[in-house]
Specification:
Pfam family, one: DDE_Tnp_1
Radius of gyration: 25 Å
Domain Transposase IS4-like: 126-271
Organism: Acididesulfobacillus acetoxydans
Number of helices: 8
Strand content: 5-15%
Largest sheet: 3 strands, antiparallel
Strand order of the largest sheet: 1-2-3
InterPro entries: Transposase_11
Helix content: 55-70%
Protein name: Transposase, IS5
Shape: globular
Length: 278
């Protein structure tokens, strides 16, 4: 409890809900006028968010003024959480103002109050062209054991991740792999040259775009096709990790929380895989 007069926090839930319902009804019209009307309604929601942020700041200032250095650990923890929530809300408000002014492309856009590290990820699939969350990168060996994983904020290109992935695999296992197989998303001349320099003998990465006759002959080799068939089996590993080991949806939030969740899922998968092998 805080002694003295504490500023009141106005409950804006009903008015906010009303505006959100208005947006749903307006969008059904699917016209240019409807889009502009939605932006006008969104501006009103932004005003309410700004008023709520101001109320929260006044309450926090009053608490710190009243208690000073005598704030209990529990109350201090609550204040820190509230401060982070206010900071994230402020970012979302600024993003919304930019979108309403016509700037629709915002790098590192925040999409969630409770998971500020999550990002929209373009998947290019008909069913779900855009997903929200994190990009998970998984490396496995010939025994289908996961030797490395990494959670990325946003959607970095596969091409930029390959070399770091292979180096972590070497560090974790203590040996240079004889062969590496990936899909065409990791393809680049620079990557193939770097992997060859690391001492990898066979590199099965289909080239993007138009291929020369020499490249087509290279990719038709038996060992290249066999490695690609093995790589396709990795999709099964990903499916199992999603369906049975919790990688489809994390119940922890934030980059650190999702990394922990995925790590324990992979640990469980590896332990069961090792038990089955023995």
């Amino acid at each position: 409890q805080v002694s003295g007069t504490v500023p009141k926090m106005r409950n804006r839930f009903r008015s906010t809900k009303k505006r959100i319902l208005e947006i749903g009804k307006t969008l059904k019209r699917r016209s240019h006028e409807a889009v502009q009307e939605v932006r006008n309604i969104t501006d009103k929601l932004v005003d309410k968010a700004i008023e709520t942020i101001s109320d929260a700041h006044r309450i926090m200032d009053k608490v710190e003024e009243t208690w000073g250095e005598q704030i209990s650990p529990a109350l201090k923890n609550t204040i820190e959480k509230l401060d982070k929530l206010i900071h994230t809300t402020d970012k979302i408000v600024n993003q919304t103002l930019q979108v309403n002014s016509g700037k629709t492309h915002i790098p590192q856009r925040v999409i969630s109050l409770y998971d500020p590290d999550a990002r929209p990820i373009q998947k290019g699939k008909l069913k779900s062209p855009t997903e929200f969350g994190y990009k998970t990168e998984i490396t496995e060996n010939e025994d289908r054991l996961v030797t490395d994983y990494k959670i990325h904020i946003g959607n970095p290109s596969d091409e930029s991740l390959l070399l770091g992935t292979v180096r972590r695999h070497i560090e974790n296992t203590g040996r240079i792999p004889y062969a590496v197989a990936t899909d065409r998303g990791y393809s680049s001349g620079k990557n193939e040259a770097a992997l060859t320099e690391l001492g990898i003998k066979r590199i099965s990465i289909p080239k993007k775009g138009k291929k020369t006759q020499k490249r087509q002959t290279h990719e038709r080799q038996r060992w290249f096709r066999r490695l690609q068939a093995w790589r396709a089996g990795g999709e099964g590993t990903i499916s199992i990790l999603k369906r049975k080991y919790g990688l489809g949806r994390s119940l922890l939030r934030g980059h650190r929380g999702v990394s922990i969740w995925v790590g324990f899922g992979i640990l469980t998968y590896n332990l069961r895989r090792l038990a089955a092998m023995n």
